[in-house]
Amino acid sequence: xxxxxxxxxxxxxxxxxxxxxxxxxxxxxxxxxxxxxxxxxxxxxxxxxxxxxxxxxxxxxxxxxxxxxxxxxxxxxxxxxxxxxxxxxxxxxxxxxxxxxxxxxxxxxxxxxxxxxxxxxxxxxxxxxxxxxxxxxxxxxxxxxxxxxxxxxxxxxxxxxxxxxxxxxxxxxxxxxxxxxxxxxxxxxxxxxxxxxxxxxxxxxxxxxxxxxxxxxxxxxxxxxxxxxxxxxxxxxxxxxxxxxxxxxxxxxxxxxxxxxxxxxxxxxxxxxxxxxxxxxxxxxxxxxxxxxxxxxxxxxxxxxxxxxxxxxxxxxxxxxxxxxxxxxxxxxxxxxxxxxxxxxxxxxxxxxxxxx
Length: 357
Description:
single chain; alpha+beta; Butyryl-Coa Dehydrogenase, subunit A, domain 1; 3 domains; four-stranded mixed beta sheet; 10 strands; 17% strand; globular
């Protein structure tokens, strides 16, 4: 197994890094403080090809591999976690779902504008009473044979990019008697009547990425918007979430790297007892452990990316490596950012420094 990046991988990594540091990093603290959705920079990400990295060029994407997506996600998230999660959802939860399960008509209508960044996507599975328990889902989609439409009613919750999305992959109950096998997937057009975004969650962090409720009141959706067959929704949801885990792992690595580098640089500048605190072994130990965990998380995520690539040929599931990468990388991000705040001391609690965010 060759762990060296190809020239193509280095190119997209460097392009993402350059864009993130020049365009995103200067506004990251401001948009997080204001809770402002970064429409302009998200549009620029689309123009650079970051919103549909793995989607073939014929469907509006850049046609690159999963590792390319991971590398770009890390760099974007390193500058701003909000941009990272917006990018992750559009790539892994929406574009991947449409590419894998959509028919040609759906790909042309929805995937092309989403992968090119012309439109923005969201993914809606969770409900107030049905997070990890989709069988308890209450949002319904009833088929009307007279109009060849589904009539959707219900409330969804915790939808990333919910108030900003043009198209949303929605999961709703079409046959309650079948439990999880009675759930179906749909592509919602947010411009049609009967749809409205609900409450935007006042989150602790990642505030420039809006997370909201979605309200459906007698929302009529043409039947050709159904993704896959009736009853396949639960299976589709789980498959899509495997890809989402790789995106979240990449985001976590970016956040951890940003915190580590900020703490390392601060330790070199901050002086106590007549010398930089980086000279103290206690600080060196923390930085060494931070870097080690980041690199371990990176390798787990690369492994998950390679497993996903292999699955394109074999059709095998990659749930385990994706889940392990997400688990370890997200816990690493929490651990590293906490240590970064400790290295900053009291300043780590101040909004004047980046580790607070």
